[in-house]
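Worked example

This section walks through a single chain of length 94. The input is the sequence exactly as stored; nothing has been trimmed or padded.
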Amino acid sequence: SVHLDQIKHRISRAISIGAPAYNAGDVKGCADAYASAAQEIIANDLPDQLRIQLSECLEQIEDDEKTYNANDDARAWALRRQFDAILEYSPPFL
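Given that input, the structure is written out below as tokens.
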């Protein structure tokens, strides 16, 4: 769908910012870019399963804030796995 394509484009933009930051050693910058994109995406009309998974990931990051803030690497990777799942998603044919 057009909407899903827009969401995938937003994720691709976040990865194009986050991945080079991560590779340059700015792991927090990467995690923050991903978190910002995730917050934008969650407000959109994602398919239920993807929305639930991303929402749970964001909640877990907030619940484990001390752990995740101490470990931006874990935060970045948790969000990146969610992004990859959304990027790979294809709506079922009706």
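What to look for: Helices lie at 2-23, 27-42, 48-63, 65-70, 72-88.
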